[in-house]
Amino acid sequence: MRFASDNSGPVHPKVMEALATANEGWALPYGNDDWTRSAIEKVRTVFEAPEAAVYFTATGSAANALALATITKPYQTIFCTPEAHIEEDECNAPEFYTGGAKLTLVESQDARMDPDALAHLLEAKTGKNVHGAQMGPLSLTQVTERGTLYNLDHLRDLTAIAKRQGLPVHLDGARFANAIVALGCSAADMSWRTGADIVSFGGTKNGLMGAEAVVIFDPELAWEFELRRKRGGHLFSKSRYLSAQMDAYLTGDLWLDMAAKANASAQKLVAGLEKTDAVRLLHPPEANMIYASFPAAAHRRLSDAGAQYYPAPGAMDGADDTLASCRIVADWSCPDAHIEEFLGLVAGK
Amino acid sequence: MRFASDNSGPVHPKVMEALATANEGWALPYGNDDWTRSAIEKVRTVFEAPEAAVYFTATGSAANALALATITKPYQTIFCTPEAHIEEDECNAPEFYTGGAKLTLVESQDARMDPDALAHLLEAKTGKNVHGAQMGPLSLTQVTERGTLYNLDHLRDLTAIAKRQGLPVHLDGARFANAIVALGCSAADMSWRTGADIVSFGGTKNGLMGAEAVVIFDPELAWEFELRRKRGGHLFSKSRYLSAQMDAYLTGDLWLDMAAKANASAQKLVAGLEKTDAVRLLHPPEANMIYASFPAAAHRRLSDAGAQYYPAPGAMDGADDTLASCRIVADWSCPDAHIEEFLGLVAGK
Amino acid sequence: MRFASDNSGPVHPKVMEALATANEGWALPYGNDDWTRSAIEKVRTVFEAPEAAVYFTATGSAANALALATITKPYQTIFCTPEAHIEEDECNAPEFYTGGAKLTLVESQDARMDPDALAHLLEAKTGKNVHGAQMGPLSLTQVTERGTLYNLDHLRDLTAIAKRQGLPVHLDGARFANAIVALGCSAADMSWRTGADIVSFGGTKNGLMGAEAVVIFDPELAWEFELRRKRGGHLFSKSRYLSAQMDAYLTGDLWLDMAAKANASAQKLVAGLEKTDAVRLLHPPEANMIYASFPAAAHRRLSDAGAQYYPAPGAMDGADDTLASCRIVADWSCPDAHIEEFLGLVAGK
Amino acid sequence: MRFASDNSGPVHPKVMEALATANEGWALPYGNDDWTRSAIEKVRTVFEAPEAAVYFTATGSAANALALATITKPYQTIFCTPEAHIEEDECNAPEFYTGGAKLTLVESQDARMDPDALAHLLEAKTGKNVHGAQMGPLSLTQVTERGTLYNLDHLRDLTAIAKRQGLPVHLDGARFANAIVALGCSAADMSWRTGADIVSFGGTKNGLMGAEAVVIFDPELAWEFELRRKRGGHLFSKSRYLSAQMDAYLTGDLWLDMAAKANASAQKLVAGLEKTDAVRLLHPPEANMIYASFPAAAHRRLSDAGAQYYPAPGAMDGADDTLASCRIVADWSCPDAHIEEFLGLVAGK
Questions:
Q1: Percentage of residues of chain B with pLDDT beyond 70
Q2: Distance between CA B259 and CA B261 in Å, rounded?
């Protein structure tokens, strides 16, 4: 029962095949190879953005930090939610890559940023002149860090507020595919059509070995990004092996199929959890990630059975019926039998 | 004929196999997996350093920059040769990762640092007090950037000079295996026994997909390194795929076999080039990399035949017998037929 | 009527005299002069800290940023209030000087940090491992940015929470003298005896031309500070002119006399404001800074009379009896007649 | 006998007077005062640059680092001589303020940069693509760090080479006034007319207490500079005291008079030294700074008499007639009697 994260399952066999195929013969390094050219074109097609600059990195933190560094000055601040991965889980990578910019936390509900709070904050920053941090990009995460989604109107509202101040918008799409599938919209709808200027387009959490794309809709930023990627040690000499992953990902809807499978598994879990009286969902589980609380006794049963997921610290310690929270994540490779077993243990059957 | 670099050939089949094996089932992320544990132990065994802290990165620039950042303060300067990869080919990655340290260039012959020049420079720095950059680590590259080697005495001399000032020593071993094979010594001989404190142990240029190890002989620096790796976006969630490469590399002498093959190919090239009167070797070719000059006519013949190597800018433009320089690199996968063909074209037969 | 800030009045005549005296003859640069030696000793005496390392800077932002950089790693976060000068008014100087550390905002009342909120946050950070920002120093401001004070118990509570986690404590004492006078305690009481490890000891807001001291109770940090000061461009060649200011400041209680005068002026303002029905004090005015709201009509009368203070944006625009907020600051040079006039205009007499 | 540096003499009485006058009454902080407005206009007039952005800092390192940071990207390199103050004497301040840019050393004679060496280096950098440091500004020092001067043609040659590559030019004018006086040209001639884009215009080494101007000929860079100055902790709240110094400096040719006096004193020293057989001038002493070597016996006589200057380490230790080098600097306040005494001791009379 592996529900700890969508980064612990195997790489999809088709991706492994693509790597094997890419391994035939020689290829020029640093992106001057056919696999890279092909993968870039596929990203552009998916995003309906034929002019976009597209680059590949091996980690999501690299994608985010490089994307933000490309559009942020060191005396600016980036607006994000308190739950944002860039705030909570990157050990100051954005501060490092931007050369010392700040992150300003904007109030949120269920990890979705509140437009009024953003508008209010931007207004307050306006009067600070040279003394305060200058206003920099807005960074939003979709799927959010609590497993919820912004609908397209919500995205549009937030980016419009930023754009009234001339601020660029970054989208952290570590689970971009899961969001697309859940919303039933296109990549273009969820990015440039709703105001995103630069996107971290994730693959690693959705069946790749380690490959993300940064999609930059303004190609004038391309060279700036390339220099920062090199300086960060993120330019791969053997680029074909990053590109081949992304190429396979975007071939024949593999990316959407894997995300659909992950979301469906999560929804099966949700449906099962909702049948158990003692379970509380902490945030609406709209993609492949569930935050829930249930009795310590259930946590202990899961633990005894070796289930992997993220119970809160101390979740095993309470009295049998003390509610304790946890995070449960499904990925493309999740067997139905694991779901059944997990639900059975929660329900105590 | 692919002699442009040792980063353009395929990944060794045994490494691809290891990746396929590593792909079975689930694994905890961020290095909490069996492949990572196994690969770390193998590195420690090879280096005869059971206490060493060992970490994997996907690029050599990341390995170098993180290693240096772990032992350099932002107000210090790093001593290296003018040819050093960290000076010439990393777009200021060391300056970035150290938070603004300087690089001080020490005179070299054939890209080997001159001990007298180093001693002289360190002495001159001593009197600067708070005003000048403070003395930081010595960084040496083995195999050097011009294809030459330091023998162990030379290494010992240089590190002794640094250590008299209390300075730590970094070894950029992007081609560590090629050096070991050429010198016929052990990894321990060429690292901690001759004064290295931290090593970038390369794999990418020697048949891996993209994996290097940073070997830190003082385990007290481990946590500092881990935080800097994370902050640089170089901590892989799916670590097993880095580790599996390194594990296969150090299994059954694969790393030494590949390096031996690359070196032998280069020596065949050297032997052939030396038979051609018009060829001049620019530096002693002691491992798998050759710097040579030969007539523009030969460069044109190679170019017409589609040979891949690095001729100097304008090498094709001179009169037939104008000498023009180039770099030629052999990797593990180099077919003998390519060598024959290349030599034939140089010789004009 | 000059109540805009305590940085707009003249330098005290005794300080000007000291500068004139210091200007006689030659002096070795960079702090190797008698004025600097004398001023350092006076700071140590005032703080009852004979071993402390003491350095002078010309601005409070430099003092804060250098002090924090000396005790913060780039992968850490600094804990401060949302109102903190280092968060709000230094254009990312702390992020810059620390090499990219973060600031984490801790809830406050009247700009005093809430100990429970701090304890809660530190606990939450404990579980983040390598992924989150690591815990760095606690930074407190005394007098706070809203004109209130921590009493010594409150300081002790906060620093104890930090110290339980091994975190160092920085005190931003831009208005240190005003706090000392208001609390009736000693400099030692308000610094190392209540847990501060490093203090920005302000002078510029209290009658100096531009001089602050950084007081470091652990002398082992001295060299680190010196290098960072030099690298920041804050080492003055003609140091005697910074030191002479600080020397005069600490001679014959001048620093306390000026602060007492500033506080007394503010208390006269408070007493007068409290007599006017429509005035609301927004925070307890415990030193020389007052946050109040009163009717727009009063703001307009003040504005027409040329009074200098900080009304909130739009304060002049409302209906006559609309309350609008403002900041009023008194310094050592404030004439009583200005106070009378200001109060008369507020009261509408 | 004070010849150690031009930073150890007193502040000129007219500057002290200006400070006293500026101290009358209140003034708005952060540059919103009449003294600042007046001083800015005087700088613009001197430079014949009515549109120039002009800012004041208290140290030369701050002026240089902020000027360079305004025109350098973190992935670029700055071209300077091996003797440059920014390379040798600022403890990595340029690397810090630029966010990690590199300094590339260009060959020099008598600390004057060699145009051919510069041209050659820029050409070599052209082919590095994303891998090498990108080309950033050219930084020249006038008066050079060895007391020599560039004539205007030499300046023009160097800046033309930079400008052919589109690179901006910084002039470190810590001793700008001494150069102007020695060359007999105007400030405009020695800056924008010969290709400088941004100038550190020194005052501290020429009779001020601590004030430099940064003159930026492209006013579009003004805001970038202001933010970086604030972020560096170099924005003074009580700006009037920096500005009043600069205002007095540029009133009635005080700046030129002081520089002329310093240069004349140095020339008297040179004339005297040249009369002594055993003295060798190490560089042409063209302004107020002399590098010479003379017998150890003379160094000992000077030392015994308490003369302040910079003998090389060990200069006192040799046999009587062993030549040992030293630096001798004259400032505006140098009494003729000191010169006589110094020369007498060197000559051994």
A1: 100
A2: 5
pLDDT score, position A16: 98
Q: What tens digit of pLDDT does each residue of B180-229 get?
A: 999 999 999 999 999 999 999 999 999 999 999 999 999 999 999 999 99
pLDDT (average), residues B289-305? 96
Dist. CA B176–CA B183, nearest whole Å: 11
ipTM: 0.96
Q: Tell me how far apart the alpha carbons of residues A287 and A145 are, in angstroms, rounded to a whole number.
A: 11
Please give the mean pLDDT across all residues of chain A.
Answer: 96
Query: Which chain C residue lies closest to B134 (C-alpha atoms)?
Result: C227
Residues B23-60 pLDDT 10s? 998 999 999 999 999 999 999 999 999 999 999 999 99
Average pLDDT over residues C114-126: 93
Q: Could you tell me if residue B92 is left (phi over 0), alpha (psi between -120 and 50 degrees) or otherwise beta?
A: left
Residues on chain A touching D75 (C-beta within 8 angstroms) = 227-228, 230-231
Structure letter (DSSP) for residue B263:
H
Span A224-256, pLDDT tens digits: 999 999 999 999 999 999 999 999 999 999 999
CB pairs < 8 Å spanning C and D: 148
Substitution target in A61, A68, A85, A95 with the highest count of C β-carbons within 10 Å is: A95
The SS3 of residue B341 is helix
- A28 contacts on B by Cβ (under 8 Å): 4, 8, 308
Q: Across the interface, which of A77, A96, A132 has its CB nearest the CB of C100?
A: A96
Q: How far apart are CA D331 and CA D343, in angstroms?
A: 16
Which chain C residues are Cβ-neighbours of A80 within 8 angstroms?
A: none
- Strands, E assignment, chain B: 53-57, 76-80, 102-105, 108-109, 112-113, 134-141, 169-173, 198-201, 212-216, 280-281, 289-295, 310-311, 323-329
CB-CB: which of D100, D103, D127 is closest to B96? D100
Asked whether A201 and A213 are in contact (CB, 8 A), the reply is yes
Q: What is the pTM of this model?
A: 0.97
**Alpha carbon distance C64, C70 (integer Å):** 10
What pLDDT, on the 0 to 100 scale, is given for residue C126? 78
Which residues, at least 6 apart from B271, have a Cβ–Cβ distance to it below 8 Å?
none
First to last CA, chain C: 16
B176-207 in b/e form (b: 16+ CB < 10 A) is bbbbbbbbeeebeebbbbbbbbbbbbbbbbbb
Q: A100: which chain D residues are within 8 Å (Cβ-Cβ)? A: 99, 231
Residues of B in contact with D134 (CB under 8 A): 91
Distance CA C146, CA C189 (A): 22
Q: In 3D, which of A150, A156, A153, A193 has the Cα closest to residue A173? A: A150
**From CA B109, how far away is CA C311, in angstroms rounded?**
69
Q: Rounded mean pLDDT of A84-88? A: 98
Across the interface, of C29, C204, C231, the residue whose CB is closest to D7 is: C29
Are C91 and A313 inside 8 Å of each other by CB?
Answer: no
B8 vs A29, A96, A210: nearest CB: A29
Which of C30, C134, C230 comes nearest B227 by C-beta? C134
Question: What pLDDT, in 10s, does the model give residues A26-41?
Answer: 999 999 999 999 999 9
Query: Does residue C147 contact residue A105 with C-beta atoms inside 8 Å?
Result: no
**Residue C200 to residue A54: CA distance in whole angstroms:** 47
**Least Cα separation, residue D38 to chain A (angstroms):** 21
Q: What's the pLDDT at B207?
A: 98
| pLDDT of residue C180 exceeding 90 | yes
